[in-house]
Design goal:
By secondary structure, the chain is α+β, with helices and mostly antiparallel strands. Helices cover 42% and strands 17% of the residues. It has a single domain, classed as Translation Initiation Factor IF3 (2-Layer Sandwich). The protein contains four helices and four strands; from the N terminus they run αβαβαββα.
Length: 126
Amino acid sequence: MGLNNFSQSQLHNNEVKNQIGLNFSTQNTRSLNVATKNSITEQKILAIIKQGADIIFLSDLRLNSLRQKAACAQIEKNFYLNGYKFLHNSQTSIRGVGILIKKRHMMTLLYGELTKMMMEIFYFWI
């Protein structure tokens, strides 16, 4: 059942639930500020994870991961210690996106994707 089958009032009243039972959230970080160590970065990380969503989409990271490898590793560690796997694509100091996935859902999501790929391969060879 697609979103087109729901009325606008149902969408606005949050009556539509996703079919895989996960909560989603988005956050524009306006830079995680990895070039300088300060409490603002830590405050942003805590504010993001406080949302408690299962999957959080992040935008405008500005990690500059090609040059700030140690700082990026520290941010990944901070998210991990708070229950999230952090995946990102933010190689320069402009823009960049990321996804936080609760660790307890990583295997479920990976298993589901692997099962789907194996079924596609299986049906291809029949």
